[in-house]
Design a protein that fits this description.
This protein is of the alpha/beta class. It contains eleven helices and six strands.
Length: about 240
């Protein structure tokens, strides 16, 4: 029999915060402002940018690159790969700024996220966000989406020195909200970090599989959206 949930751990990017939407908006704006990038279709540019973002972000999480240096390096590599001339490659910093401005302008929550957080708080569940990123960066997203009063604590890889899927970051989150692993649920979109990490930590996972990935060998509860509200709450609370 499943222990009733007393706390919920959430991933942030592409679980509560619509990182995919902001990334797509920012990538389109960047392509329009930097002609060299038109060598690729918008979809190919988006995929190339996403791959670089994941690769370079690991250096940020590990503390080997600052967030500003990582942004410049990302666009330097994109422009170089696009065959841009030296002058264009020299505009990597400006491209990073343009991208960042559009990304921030388009910040929004995943559909249903605010309502779900409110419903969980109304049930007196403790809520933590567990994320592999810089604290200030994630605090800003939470503020822009209006989630602040609905989240009890933010646990970041920067703040703990531990990144998902390591068990320690989940343990830190559980301690912060005062619940045991058996009393908690982890909701996240990334299998390798959110779901595998939760399983290793003894936390019941709910896979937010909005991309429609095929099932994995380990059966877990799964939702494809945070709406309708009743279905999402039922999957989380059991």
């Amino acid at each position: 029999m499943t222990t009733p949930a007393r706390g919920v751990l959430f991933d942030l990017d592409d679980t509560l915060f619509d990182h995919n939407f902001s990334t797509n908006c920012a990538t389109a704006a960047m392509r329009e402002s930097e002609p060299a990038l038109a060598v690729w279709s918008l979809e190919e540019l988006r995929l190339r940018h996403s791959e670089l973002l994941e690769t370079i972000h690991r250096e940020v999480v590990a503390g080997r690159l600052s967030i500003d240096d990582a942004r410049r390096e990302r666009f330097r590599r994109l422009l170089t790969d696009a065959g841009a001339d030296e002058e264009a490659v020299g505009r990597a910093s400006a491209a990073a700024t343009r991208y960042r401005e559009e990304y921030q302008r388009s910040c929004r929550g995943v559909a249903g996220a605010a309502e779900l957080l409110t419903a969980l708080k109304n049930r007196r569940l403790r809520v933590a966000v567990v994320t592999n990123n810089l604290t200030a960066e994630q605090e800003q997203k939470i503020k822009r989406c209006g989630f602040g009063g609905r989240i009890d604590v933010l646990i970041t890889s920067e703040g703990t020195g531990i990144a998902k899927p390591e068990v320690g970051i989940f343990t830190a989150a559980l301690s912060a909200i005062g619940v045991s692993a058996s009393e908690a649920v982890m909701v996240g979109d990334a299998w390798d970090t959110d779901i595998a990490g939760a399983i290793a930590a003894g936390v019941r996972p709910v896979w937010f599989n909005w991309r429609g990935h095929p099932p994995r060998d380990i059966p877990v509860a799964e939702i494809g959206a945070l709406t309708p509200l009743d279905a999402a709450v039922s999957a989380i609370c059991g």
